[in-house]
Structure formats: C-alpha cells, structure tokens
Amino acid sequence: MIEYDGIDNRMVLKLVYYGPALSGKTTNLLRLHDMVEQEGRGELTVLDTKDDRTIFFDLLPFFLTAPGGLKIKLKVFTVPGQVKHDATRKAVLQRADGVAFIADSQVSEETNNFESFRNLEDNLGFVGLDIEKIPLVVQFNKRDLGNIVAEDDIRRVWEQTGIPVFMSSAITGTGVMETFRELVKQTYDHIDRRYGLMEKHGLDKTAFVGKLTLPSP
Amino acid sequence: MKKEYIVGAEKSLGEIIKDIDLIPFFRSAVESGIPCVMLEDSRGDVLCHWGNPSGEGMITLRKPVYLEGEAAGYVVVRGDEPSRSRIEAAAELILNAVNTILRSSFKSVLATETHMAVVDQSYNELLETNRRLQLSEGRYRDLADTLEKQVHERTEELRQALATLLHQEKIASVGQLAAGVAHEINNPLGFIVSNLNTLNQYVSRFRDMLVLYRSAFENGEFTDENRALTRRKWGDYKLDFILPDAADLIRESLDGAERVRKIVADLKDFSHIDDGDRAGVDINREIDRTLNVLTHEIPGDAEIIRDYRPLPEFTCSPAHICQAFFNIILNALQTGKEGLKLIITTRYEKDFIRISFSDNGPGIPEEITNRIFEPFFTTKEVGKGTGMGLKVTYDIITSYGGTIEVKSVPGSGAAFGILLPVAKKENNVIREAV
Q1: Torsion of CA B171, B174, B178, B179, to 10 degrees
Q2: Which residues of chain B make contact with A45, given a CB cutoff of 8 A?
Q3: Of chain B's two ends, which shows fewer C-beta atoms within 10 Å, N or C?
Q4: A3-212: which CATH number, 3.40.50.2300, 3.40.50.300, 3.50.50.60, 2.40.50.140?
C-alpha cells in the first residue's frame, strides 16, 4: 500500500503488471483504459518510452469512494521487462498490493517467462513481500499467435501452484478484464482483512470490484 | 536528511508544477488584456498568479485541473463582466496550456523519482556489497596472517630439521674419517714406537760404553788392556753401525710425528672447530682443506687437478661448505676407478662463484640422475652409505641461494656444477692466488 491516511480518510493502493519484455503489459493497460468507464479512472500515463519499450513504467489510476466516505485510489503500474532494468522493477514493486504476471504464450518465450517469474519471486523477497501471500494472477497473453504453448500444458503446470491463470489476447482485449477483475478481487480480500473495508467503511467486494471494472458504455 | 522515494507516492499540485513554468505564460495572458490569471491547489492556496486579483466588480472563472484523474487544483481567471465571453475563451485556452505543462511536468517528476529510487537502492546495494567485501577481506587478511605464522613455524621446523640432518651427516662423516685417519696416524705411530724401542736398546749400549770408558780412564792411564777391552766392546756393540742408524731413527721419528701433527691440523681445519658460525672464506682453501683430510682415501694412482682461479670472499659457515665439498669429493674417490682423474675448477663470473668437480669415473646411470639429491637415496651397499651425503650438499648449497646440478655420461664420468651467488659488496676483494 502506497499510503493510508486515516485523517484525510484516504487510501492509495498499488497493483503491478510484471513479466518478461514485450509480453504485453502496456497493451493490457491500454485496453483496460479503453474498457473501463471514464468516471472511475484517470488517464494512462505512458512514461518515457523508447523504441516502443517501457523503460520506466506506465501508470493508470482508478478511483472509488466507499459508502463510509473512504476515498480509494488504485494505481496500476507496469514494469520494464528487460533484464537490465531490474533496479526499476524493484523500485516499482515496492509496497505493491497485488501483481499480475503477464507471460508470453509463444513457445520461444518459455525460458524468458520462467526467468522473469523467478525474478519476480526474488524481487518480491527483496522488497519484503511474500509471494505466498500477495494477491497474484497469471495471464498467458498472445493466444492469437501461432506456435504457442498449448493451454492444457499451461494449466497442468500452473494448477499445482493454486495461482489463477487466464488466457488472453491483449491486442484484441480478450482476457484483459478477466485478469484485472480476479486481481482486484484478491486485492479486496487482502486489504479487507487488515483494514476492514466492509466493517469500517461499508464497502463490500461486489461494490469494490464492480466500481473498478465498470465497463464504458 | 534522507528521503525515501516510493514509486506512486501521492503528489500535490505544488510539488509537480512550479510558478516559474507558468509565469511567462500567465504574463502573456495579462499583457493580452486578461486582468488576472491564477493557479490554486485543491486547498485554495495560490501557487502562481499574474495581474491584479482584487479588482472591484470582476467576475471569477474557476476551471478544475486534473492530476492522475483527480481535481488537484484550479485555474482561476478574473475579468470584467462585459467581456465574459472573451474571458471564458481565454480561461479555456489557459486551462489547456496548464494541463499540457502539468502532464509533461508530471512525467518528468515521476521519471526523476523512479530514477532517485533506483539510485538510492543501487547505492544501498553497493553499501551492502562493500560491507560484505570488507568482511571477506577481513577474513582473508586473518587467514593470510595465520598463514604467515604457519609458514614461519614450518620454516623454523625445516631449519631445525636441516640442522639436525647436517649434524648427523657430520657425525657419519666423522666416523668415516676416523677409520681413515686412524690408519694414517697408526702408520707413523707404529714406526715411531718401533724406532723408540730400538733407540732404547741403542741408548743402553751407549751407556755401557760410556761407563766402560770412564772406568778405563779413571786410573789416569789408558792401558793396553783397557784399549783392547774397549775396542772389543765397540765391536761387540756394533757401534759403527748403530751410531748413524740412531740419527736416522730420530729423523724418521720426527718425520712421523710431523705427519701426525699435520693430519690433526688438517682435521681441525676441516672441522672448523675454532671458527664462528659464519665467516668470509676462500673457497679454494676450503676445497684444499677438504682434500687434505681425504688424503688417505685418495688411491695411489689417482690424479687430482686443481684448476683454481682467485675468488672473492664467500660468507658462509666454513664447516658447512667443507661438508658440502667433502660429500662430492668422497663420492668421486670411492668410485673404484683405476687411474682416477678428478678435476676441480673454480671461477668467479658475474657475481657468481662457479665450482665444478668432474671425474672420469663410471658416471651416474641416467635413470637415477634426478634422484641423487633425494634423502636416503644411495647406491652403496647397505650400511656403507647413509643416502644423505648429496642431499646434505644440496641443502647447504641452496641455503646460500646457490644451485647444484649434475651432468653425467655413463661410463665416462660425472661432473657436479655449483653456483654460489656472492653478496654484492663494495669491498669485494679477489684474493690473490697464494
């Protein structure tokens, strides 16, 4: 959590889209930006890209106000996927409330996915977060391409971990909202346990998820 | 003070946009006829203003400025009611401009903060790396200290082992020497004793003869009877023969005693009993001393050729260096070769003393040339050699920083070459050959 201000009655949460280079993290945010009702979100800030690659991060903010008056701001970040930007990844990952791991479905990217996931585990440890506890979803993107790992194979591998897995094609929007919705659900549970979102602020999960994923007309 | 940068931390409008970014623009607006332009943050604090804010009867237009999708402040434009439409248009224009400036400032602030967070983190990682490196460097230093101590201990042990070895070898060669020297001394002693016995008999005859002469002359007159008596006695005692023989016996005995004296002197020279631990020595003389004590081992038909050149003083333990030469020379003498020829050469070249001992003996079989300096290696019969001789020579030579090598052609001899480095001294005087 970036910030919780009991006096101002304000909470700022952080979600991070992690994954190997060019797996479609920014595309996920672009699609989300288009899909979600304008009233509940801010503009997408795409920060200093070079050759179509994120070198800092992208930021998409969402807002909602709980019935009890608590203002919640949810900032969704992407990280740069290139190995050399590890320090930036660590910095962005600090105080994250949830992580979506965006994998590239192409057979040729299997090693990169694996390395990046291991890097996520290391870096979560580095910033003092527990991968067993933090809300986490996995998305296998680029299902629209040929020469991809079969869905059965992916599910067989990931089932054992208990981490929810989504198939997507971010470029067409398929699976983007499902991934986000699941991450937001988990994040609600995680925050509710510690801050009593329902108990103290009258905000239930359906309202929380509903507001953050309200589709644009 | 250290600031912690959290990517995504909330920012107020004032933290992102500075009046210096806006003033040129606000000024142009005022100059073009808008009475007052301001930027307020969400709490109503004025961040930047230009023109006169307190004009009477003016209208005020407030347009929200959005940051991360939230209203973070307001662009405030004031003007006269009659020109409202112009003011409205100007307010819209100014809002767009402020938003544009804000978006680009926002990006640059975020980029800067990420950069700072990364720098901070890298710095902390470097500190941690440095701390770990210092720790391990400390460990290695401790290890190095211990190692140095262990090396010192081992060196001391080795030094003592060498000293013991030298001592044992010395005793062994003393035993060997004793056998030869006993023979050398026994010979002259034997004939000295035999001569003295003979002289003893001669002296009793001289005494009898003298007594006879005295009694013959005591009466004052040398009678014919006495003359006959003394002549007979002279003849009986064979005094014509024993008088010159006695002189010979004495000369021979003195020679013998001199030989014994010389052997003892050589032994003393060789053992350097009276010398200190270290001294400047003339290597040529030490080789001679070694040859002297080995005289009895030199076969009669052997030829020793001393090809010496003047050498500078060499600082060493004289006893040790003699021991080193002794072991090499003795090996050559004991080859059993008839007509043995041992050539000893000494030279001084480029700060090194070069000594070579080459013989025409049977040489060293090729398969053992690289083993002869090993301890306990011997080709002699069990009990005859300690196997330590050349090992001791090797240790002595190397302890002075020297080298020793052997060249051998089986069947035609062996040559030992020794190089000893001479410490550089101003007063290195080459001794004149005696």
Answers
A1: 80
A2: 68, 103, 106-107, 110
A3: N
A4: 3.40.50.300
pLDDT of residue A50: 61
Taking the Cβ of residue A41 and every Cβ of chain B, the question of whether any pair is shorter than 8 Å is answered with yes
CA distance, residue A87 to nearest chain B CA (Å): 6
- Nearest chain B residue to A62, by CA: B69
pLDDT in tens, B217-271: 887 777 888 888 888 988 888 888 988 988 898 998 998 888 888 888 877 777 7
Domain ranges of chain A: 3-212
Average pLDDT taken over every residue of chain A: 91
Q: Using CB atoms, which residue from B69, B70, B114 is nearest to A56?
A: B114
Q: How far is residue B114's CA from residue B107's CA, in Å, rounded to a whole number?
A: 11
Q: Which of B359, B340, B339 is nearest to B414 (CA)?
A: B359
- Structure tokens, B110: 């975020």
Confidence of residue B273 (pLDDT cuts 50, 70, 90): low
Q: Which tokens sit at B405?
A: 């090598």
Question: Would you give the distance in Å from CA A31 to the centre of its chain?
Answer: 13
Closest chain B CA to residue A13: B8
